[in-house]
Amino acid sequence: MKSAYIHIPFCEHICHYCDFNKVFLKGQPVDEYVQSLIKEFEIVLNETPTQNLDTIFVGGGTPTSLNEQQLETLCKGIRKYLPFTEGEFTFEANPGDLSIDKLKILAEYGVNRISFGVQSFNNELLAKIGRTHRVEDVYSSLEKAMQCGFTNLSIDLIYALPGQTIDDFEATLKEALDLQLPHYSSYSLIVEPKTVFYNLMRKGKLILPSEDVEAEMYKMLMSQMETSGLNQYEISNFSKPGYESKHNLVYWNNEEYFGFGAGAHGYINDIRYSNAGPLKKYMQPISEGKRPIFDQNKITKKEKMEEEMFLGLRKIKGVQLSHFHQKYNENMMDVFKEPIHEMMNRGLLTMNNDFLYLTNRGKLLGNEVFQAFLL
Ligand SMILES: C[S@@+](CC[C@H](N)C(=O)[O-])C[C@H]1O[C@@H](n2cnc3c(N)ncnc32)[C@H](O)[C@@H]1O
Ligand SMILES: C[S@@+](CC[C@H](N)C(=O)[O-])C[C@H]1O[C@@H](n2cnc3c(N)ncnc32)[C@H](O)[C@@H]1O
Ligand code: SF4
Q1: Residues with beta carbon inside 6 Å of ligand 3?
Q2: Is residue 258 included in any domain, yes or no?
Q3: Which of these, 141, 351, 316, lies nearest to 226 by C-alpha position?
Q4: Could you tell which of 6, 18, 221 is best to mutate to test the pocket of ligand 1, judged by most ligand atoms within 8 Å of the CB?
Q5: Which keywords are on file for this protein (predicted)?
Q6: Ligand 1 centre from 61 Cα, in Å?
Q7: 232, 251, 270 — which closes off a domain?
C-alpha cells in the first residue's frame, strides 16, 4: 500500500485546543498556495515516479475552507499528477462548511470518504472549545453529503473536555451513534503547548475531568461502540466491517506515503521527511522548482523495527509475528525480548498464536507501551 497526504493549513477560526499546522484564513494567499501544492505534486512525482496510490487524504487545517474554484483547481491537480485510479479518497470537513456545490465538486473528482470534525453534540461545550459550528450544522452537513451520494462518512469526537461530565459524553455518544455512520474516531483531549487551553491551564483556569473520569469515558466509548456493532480497530477508531480508514492503516502498518503541503510529513524510500510549516518557507522553494523539505531522516533497520511496534501496537489486532519475520528477517521475540516481557508481566500486552496485542488495561496506558519499544 502507498498513500498521499495533502495539507490545507487554513481555518476560518482557531480552536482552543488545536496545535496542528494552520493559520487564520482571512488575508492568506490561498490561490497561490493551491498552485504551490500542484507544483509540488509535479516536482515530487517527477523525482519519484510511482505506479499507483491506494489512498489519498486531504486534511488540515480545514480543506473545506477553500472556495469552490480553489477546491476544483486542487482536485484537478490531484487527478492530473497523482496516480490514483481506485481506492480511498478522503476529505476532512468542518460541519457547516460544505455547500452542495462543494460536495458536487468533491464527488466529481472521485472523493469517496468525508471525515467531519464534530467534536461534541453539546452546543455549550462546542462554544467553550472555540468551535463555531453548532449541532444543527452537523445534521445538515451529513444530510447534504448523503444527498450528494456520499456513504463512507466519519465523525471525530473529543472527550475529557473542560467541564465535561460522564453523562455529557454519554449523551454525545448516543447522538453520534444514532446517526448509524460506518466510522467514528474519538480522541481524548490533549492539552498542547501554544494553545489557548494550555495558557488557561497554566493560570489554573482550565478545569479538566480527572484521570479516573477520563478512563471511565474511554471504557464507556468502547462498550457503546461494541453494543452498536462497531468494531474497534485502533485505540481511537471504530468502524463497521470494511469501513476501517485505509489511509490511517497505512500509517499504523508502517507503510509509505507522500506528504504534500505546508508542514506535511511523508515517508518514501526509507526516508521520513517533513515539509516547511510556515507558508512562505513552504512556497518559496517550490517557486524555484525545489522541494520544500524542512527535515529528513534515513530510517535504519533498527528504527524501522521500532516504528513497526510503536505504530502497529495501536491496532487492536496488534502486530503479527510472522509478518514481522517476513518483513525484517528477524524474530520479534528476540529483538524486543525485554519490553515484550516487561509489558506482558505488567498485564499491558498479551499474545495469541501469531499476534502480540494490547490488553484492555494496555489500551488505557497505550503511550507507556508504545514508548517501551523505542530501544
Ligand atoms: C487537526 S483536525 C483537522 C480537521 C478539521 N479542521 C476539524 O477541526 O475537524 C483533526 C482532528 O484532530 C482532533 N484533534 C485536534 N486537536 C486535538 C487535541 N488537542 N486533542 C485531541 N484531539 C484533537 C479533532 O478531533 C479533529 O477533528
Ligand atoms: C487526527 S487525524 C483524523 C482522521 C480522521 N479521524 C479519519 O478517520 O479520517 C487527521 C489529521 O492528522 C494530521 N495528519 C495526518 N496525516 C498527516 C501527514 N502525513 N502530515 C501532516 N499531518 C498529518 C492532519 O492535521 C489531519 O487533519
Ligand atoms: S481543530 Fe480543525 S478547525 Fe479547529 S483550529 Fe484545528 S484544524 Fe482548524
Answers
A1: 11, 14-15, 18, 20, 22, 60-62, 94, 117
A2: no
A3: 316
A4: 18
A5: 4Fe-4S, Chaperone, Cytoplasm, Heme, Iron, Iron-sulfur, Metal-binding, Oxidoreductase, S-adenosyl-L-methionine
A6: 9
A7: 251
Q: Is 62 in the pocket of ligand 1 (CB under 6 A)?
A: yes
- Distance between CA atoms of residues 237 and 175, nearest Å: 17
Whether residue 305 is contained in a domain is answered as yes
Same domain as 155, residue 58: yes
pLDDT digits (tens, 9 = 90+) for 310-324: 999 999 999 999 999
When divided into structural domains, the chain yields a total of: 2
| Ligand 2 pocket member 20 (CB < 6 A) | yes
Q: Give the CATH number for residue 226.
A: 3.20.20.70
Q: Residue 56 gets which letter from DSSP?
A: E
pLDDT in tens, 122-165: 999 999 999 999 999 999 999 999 999 999 999 999 999 999 99
**CATH code: domain of residue 348:** 1.10.10.920
Quote the domain boundaries for residue 233: 2-251
Q: Which value, in Å, is the radius of gyration of the alpha carbons in the chain?
A: 21
Q: Whose CA is nearest to atom 15 of ligand 1?
A: 18
User: Ligand 1 pocket, 156 CB below 6 A?
Assistant: yes
Domain check: are 305 and 247 in the same one? no
- 59 Cα to the center of ligand 2, angstroms: 6
pLDDT at 375 over 80: no
Cell 505504530, residue? Answer: 311
- What pLDDT sits at residue 39? 98
CB of residue 152 inside a 6 A radius of ligand 2 = no
Which of 28, 14, 65, 37 is closest to 258 using CA atoms? 37
pLDDT score of 102 more than 80 = yes
pLDDT tens digits along 55-98: 999 999 999 999 999 999 999 999 999 999 999 999 999 999 99
Longest dimension (CA), the chain: 57
Q: What is the value of ipTM here, to two decimals?
A: 0.98
Q: If you average pLDDT over every residue of the chain, what do you get?
A: 97
Is 61 within a domain? Answer: yes
Nearest ligand, CA 59:
2
User: What local confidence, expressed as pLDDT, does residue 353 receive?
Assistant: 87
